[in-house]
Protein 1
Amino acid sequence: MFLQVKVRTADPEEVLARVRKAGLLPPHRKYLSGEGLLVLGYPAENPDETLRGLSRVFSFEEVEETGLSETPLPAPERFSVGPLRFFVPVEAEAPAPGEIYLRSTLSFGSGRHPTTKLCLRLLTELFPEVAPEAVFDLGCGSGILALAAAGLGAQRVLAADIDPRAVREARHNVERNGLSGRILIIRGSLDSAALVRFDLVLANLTIGTLSALLPEIPGVLRPGGVAIVSGISSGQREEILSVVPRAEVLREVTEEGWLALALRF
């Protein structure tokens, strides 16, 4: 495993000079000029100590993201879920015909995490049955679930996130896939959909956020609408269902201890 630290800068040499002076020059580094990000890759032998050292070098605003990864530096990736094919580039690589382009400067929403994979799996399995025309992606991250819904045939998708970085990332991906006419990305939460009714809601959230918002989701669904929820462990199944006791469990899938549910209201 490796610790990746992403630093936002227009002058990578100046940043590397500061890191070198602090005795923290990493064995792996790459500047993504198109993104304005310098990626520093360290062996994950003692990540806490490395991060403490880097906290004395960088301001909070400079560090875009830190996280553990199987590779020292970002690498292009392709993966499929059902009929959907995704391409995650590192810089300006172009997708092949039929692929969904998914830039993921940040790790959230890259499709790598089991909670995202589970949402995609349920979405592809249930789409023919639910046949949603209008979809709401709550907590959209990079926009991967919104893009998947549109790729499967949804005509109107609203995607919201409270993180401005996610909104920026999702808008870029929607534009690159030529789907601005069908997907609207906004900064906000569930109240962003207060005046609209949807056939399907997608919510890949933390257990705390999901517990708070799930009881309100039926209010933005049409009668008989479906919500696909993820971000919970298998052991939290009963806890999350207790906040929506009238929901019908249509389907559930698990992976690596994570659980996703398709609920009809």
Note: The chain has a mean pLDDT of 93.
Protein 2
Amino acid sequence: MLRKCNNNHGHYRGELCPVCGEKGKFLMSEEELKRIGGIMSGILRHFPDQFGVMMDDNGWVSILDLVDAIKTRKIGLHWLRPLHIEAIVETDEKNRYQIDGEMVRATYAHTIDVNLSDLPMAKLSTLYYPVTEDEVEIVLEQGLTPTDRSKVHLSGSIEKATEAGQIRTENPIILQIDAEKAIKNGVSIRQAGKDVYIADEIAVKYVSRLKGS
């Protein structure tokens, strides 16, 4: 459930404001939040053209255009307003989106080409990437290149890499990336979310198998 605090503590998900403990203004139900979030993710990451939404080279689209496109093409969402999009972005725990003025974009997981070079450079010296048993030798020979996404997605911790890897295999093998060395050598690794980092590719000389993995 998505709400707005009446005491100026911003938007939040749940019944009570985590700051003041009071029940704020209702914005949308959990079902509506899930539905709109899924549509929004699809447009900003994969198929803006299908909704007639204009996207610039950096992945930004007009919030008003996004809202109008969803209202026009999806039944039962006539009530949607820009404030709902802003609330979704503000309360997203993974920081998957950004808002700049009247524009919004997704910061990672794109399957379309966008220029995300304006995201901040990674500050962690080591990053992590999960692979299956079948993939590990290939990656250690060839390095990392995008598969089903337009960028290589790295994790900021072993725990998050393990979680990501468990989507595909029960016991993922974790590789470590010497991000500090890579960046010093001119590789662009950007922080795209709370614990997500992206790069065009990672050469094999920066990749090794995590000890014990």
Note: Residues 2-106 form a domain with the Arc Repressor Mutant, subunit A fold (CATH 1.10.10.970).
